Amino acid sequence: MASPSDLEGAVLARLGAGAIEDSLEEAVRLEVEHKSLVGVVQSLHSDEYVTLETLSKSWMVATAEGEEILASGSPEYRVWAAVKEVGELSVKALEAQMACAKVGMGAAMKEKWLERAKGANGETLLRVTRETVEDTTRSLLARVSALSPEEEKALTRRKLASRQTVKYFKVDKGPKYQAVRAKKCADLSVEALKDGSWQTAEWKAYNFASVGERVAGGYVQPLLKVRAEFRKILMGMGFEEMPTNRWVESSFWNFDALFQPQSHPARDAHDTFFVKDPAEAVELPGEYYERVKAVHETGGYGSIGHRSPFDDAEAHKNLLRTHTTAVSARMLYALAQQQPFQPKRYFSIDRVFRNESMDSTHLCEFHQVEGLVADYDLSLSNLIATIRTFFQNIGITQLRFKPAFNPYTEPSMEVFGYHPTLKKWTEIGNSGIFRPEMLKPMGLPDNVRVIAWGLSLERPTMIKYKINNIRDLFGHKADIARAKATPMCIFPNLSPRLGALIAFSHAPRFFSRRAAACLWEVEPPSFALSSSLRLVTTTELDAVLDVDSSCSESWIEPWIETWTETRTETWMDGVR
Q1: Which end of the chain is more exposed for a tag (fewer CB within 10 A), N or C?
Q2: Cβ atoms < 10 Å from Cβ of 113
Q3: Where are the alpha helices (DSSP H) in 337-456?
Q4: What is the DSSP letter of 2?
């Protein structure tokens, strides 16, 4: 049949003479595919022109291997025939002669068609024990549609035959049967309104419960979902977002302003992507540039500097920023020019670039979450508490802090989070207190401290969505279908008490006078720096910080005391 309408007419005409007992046989009679016939009768059934009864039939068919046996004989028969032809045959020669030697030999030995013997040179020989045999397997496959249950089971076990089941329909007249189906109206036309035919027309039922067609719109990538949630959390903690649209930075802002020596290996081409055109920055702040240069060469503010020549050409090189701390340096310099000084909280979430070896946790291009707090007399306790509060807001409660070294922070800490899928601790960020060699040339007041941290956006996202490989999340290997299937990013919120309290030490020497710490007492979600303070005990501070065994007083005090003793008296005067 050429079209569904022709096939529909043939079916309705056939039903006029009686029911269609087997749709498979009817499809053969009409010379159409069975699925085409089924589509027509199901359409008629929806309008109650016909009734359908679903039936099924099954039969045994030979598999591909079974078809090969039908053509060439079973492996056991072929092995027996090969041995009989030469009288006796070695096992090695038989295996070289045919691929099915092992299978056929085992079956032939089981049927006692062959026997083993030792040759003169020690080889195993095969000899026939029967002059004539019947290829039973081939005979069974020849009548595969009429097997006994035992025979069927035997062939199925050897994967030589399988049962094939096909569904079909018995079709009969329905309550609204007619020789020709009247077409139902789906849309109201102008012509139907004019001639009044809409009043007598038969209309298709409207399905109000049907699901509309899925909109093929865009989907938010998992990283952007987490980024949006991070922004909401940080803004709720009182942070202000920094402008981060400058991907190309000068080496001065990316390295020199951070008191990172020009001989540092991170400034080599194997760690940093340098820009060829334009290769150099056009303009840098003059007086501030000279102060930074002097600190690098001769020191100052309690530091001896790096004691090496400062190369102006190196400072002017353009590069793809390796961290968003370059943006932080610009913002702090701008803040220092404002008089009087106003405490600030800044954050940024944007892309950075490093020439790294890529693996399951590292990429050359990734996103960094950075935050900083500039205020009077801040200390390490403020930094730990702020980081813990942020991560508790995103549901990562298992954190560890490890002493580290950064050129522009002292003290410094690496932040580790536990990955539940990888079952290991993964580094998720770095943190510290900016050195005076970085802050004083900017012009910030003497007792202003800046605590800062940089956290990868990818790794917390991997922990959140239990992704093992960072390349499955971001980059050219990322699965686009994952963006469609990834659920919304909603992090559990802290209790009002913990959400409102961020521990900020007000003691000049937190390291030796920890009991003099204090807490901000404000209502969420605003965390104003001018909030009232009260002194609390060490126990109260620990309760808010939720200090675990990885950052307990017994663990951190020796490190703090060692750090305190090794600093010069000039630096400690600045801290006081």
Answers
A1: C
A2: 22
A3: 380-393, 436-439
A4: -
User: What's the average model confidence in pLDDT over 275-300?
Assistant: 89
- Asked if pLDDT for residue 429 goes beyond 90, the answer is no
pLDDT at 291 over 50: yes
Distance CA 10, CA 16 (A): 10
- Pairing between β-strand 114-118 and β-strand 124-128 as defined by DSSP bridges: antiparallel
pTM tops 0.90? no
Omega before residue 496 within 30° of 0, cis: no
Backbone angles phi, psi at 424, to 5 degrees: -155, 165
Cis upstream peptide for 175 (omega within 30°): no
Q: How far apart are CA 71 and CA 447, in angstroms?
A: 95
Count CB-CB contacts under 10 A for residue 409: 24
Residue bearing tokens 């100052």: 300
pLDDT for the residue 520: 30
Instruction: State yes or no: cis peptide before 309, omega within 30 of 0.
Output: no
Contacts of residue 42, defined as CB under 8 A and 6 or more positions apart, other chains included, come to 52
Alpha carbon of 47 to those of 32, 174, 187, 456: distances in Å? 23, 9, 17, 60
Give residue-wise pLDDT tens across range 314-368: 889 999 998 899 999 999 999 999 989 999 999 999 988 988 777 766 777 888 8
Structure tokens at 271: 């760690």
Classify residue 235 as exposed, middle or buried by CB count within 10 Å of its CB (0-12, 13-18, 19+). middle
The answer to whether the CB of 446 falls within 8 A of the CB of 573 is no
> For residue 530, which of 538, 539, 521 has the smallest C-alpha distance?
521
Q: Omega before 525 cis (within 30°)?
A: yes
What number of H helices and E strands is found in the chain? 23, 17
pLDDT of 449 above 90: yes
How far is it, in rounded angstroms, from Cα 229 to Cα 486? Answer: 15
Give the mean pLDDT of 516-522: 30
Question: Which residue in 436, 437, 416, 433 sits closest to 425, CA to CA?
Answer: 416
Token code pair at residue 144: 């595969």
Each residue of 155-184: b (16+ CB within 10 Å) or e? beebebbeeeeeebbebeebeebeeebeee
Give CA–CA dist 112/534, Å, rounded: 97
Token pair for 275:
């820009």
Beta strands 518-520 and 503-504 are: antiparallel
